[in-house]
Write a structure and sequence with these properties.
Blueprint lengths: L1 E2 L6 E5 L2 E4 L4 H6 L2 H10 L13 E14 L6 E9 L8 E7 L6 H14 L11 H15 L3 E7 L7 E8 L4
Antiparallel strand pairs: 1-2, 2-3, 4-5, 4-7, 5-6, 7-8
Length: about 170
Amino acid sequence: MFTTKYDVAATVRKDDKIMSKSKWGKFNDSVDLDGLAQDVKNADTSANDYPVVPKGTYEVELVSLEVKPTKKDGRPMVSTSFRILTGDYKKQRLFDNKVIYATNNDGKSIKSVIGFLNSLGSDINIEFRDYDQFEEVVLDVSEAVQGNLEYLIEYDPDEYFSVSVKEVFEVEGA
């Protein structure tokens, strides 16, 4: 029996099979690790399951809209996800994240997010008083539009706002 230099996992060799006592041990113990290693080695990575969505005009629905912390340092950001509804990239997702704290110009960043939120057509009064209140407004907008509205957007991954709403459509039967 031995432990890693980080002392987080222990393994035991039993009948030429490594038995792990780590948090991932049950997975290691349930598969043919040699076969899996060979599958990884032989996997074709030249064909991406999700092609890169190019700059263009797309019909989309809102999948998610929320304020959440950045992974790097926990600053608040508005995170948006859309799903493409038609064409060659149908079912592909488009993501856009905007940090709204400790930027070069927080006021400008928040005002541009407010403009984006207004473009979603929710009819909700969108204003910023504090970060808690703004998170509630963002969630209200998300709830108001999801399943009720769809969008014609311009997508440009090289722009600060990669998604620009051009038209808003009501979902039939919503």
